[in-house]
Task: structure prediction
Amino acid sequence: MKTLQFRQAVCEAMSEEMRRDESIYLMGEEVAEYNGAYKASKGMLDEFGPKRVIDTPIAELGFSGIAVGSAMNGNRPIVEFMTFNFSLVGIDQIINNAAKLRQMSGGQFNIPIVFRGPTASGGQLGATHSQAFENWYANCPGLKVVVPSNPYDAKGLLKSAIRDNDPVIFMESEQMYGDKGEVPEGEYTIPLGVADIKREGKDVTIVSFGKIIKEAYTAADTLEKEGISCEIIDLRTVRPMDNQMILNSVKKTNRLVILEEAWPFGSVSSEITYMVQENAFDYLDAPIIRLTTADTPAPYAPNLLQEWLPGSDDVIKAVKKVLNK
Result:
């Protein structure tokens, strides 16, 4: 095993796949000469050259459309958005072309594209740069949505995403790019659609994904000192979702808290809540609690931002509530 930053794990995944398959290339704003806005493509221009690591204009609709046409003609593009907030400019190509062309062509076209970049809050970036889009894209049939929380998962999942014959939305966090973790020296992949139990427990199930899951780890450490055992599930893939792992855990603990960094209405936690009550209602000993951001645009002031985001204290309160403590 070796220790890598999250950005290095992403870079390794892309580079290894590009060495394996010449039809893969990377394009986006600042991915080449600048080594990526968050240095996730550092050194790739030197290795692969300007035909396979391509700096684009600030024109997300344009280069997203180029990627779709390129994929229809046998290539496997990786499209980096400097932030998924900017993907809204190109969302017509993602939703109406990338996600639908396989069905609309009767299976004549595969669209193997990875759209990747940071999602959700990045700190004091303001309301237009702090939005989470996992549930937006997961709402669209034809798209797979991946949200890793650590370097190990990021590399293994990204390699699988690049090899997938369907479009994959791969969401990162600019606040995680410097996170370090152990990654295997050799080749490995992690299948899409398989969650991971990050911590075994017996009293309550906590389901989360992405960088906000760190708040669950902090809360679980505190609760353990009080004799409360938390089982933490990292979804890793939002769509397709590993419903069975969630249900198995809930049937064991009989309680569920869901933590996500997104607005509450129509959220991923809403979908999980419905799925669990439909399939495991009789196993629940308490109502499910969802922890999300406040139902407002993200504030800029740091004290307000802290209140807007769910934190470990919120997780602790929610766990104690479902346990009637």
User: Anything to note?
Assistant: The chain has a mean pLDDT of 97. The first strand starts at residue 2 and ends at 5. The first helix runs from residue 6 to 20. The CA atoms of residues 157 and 190 lie 5 Å apart.
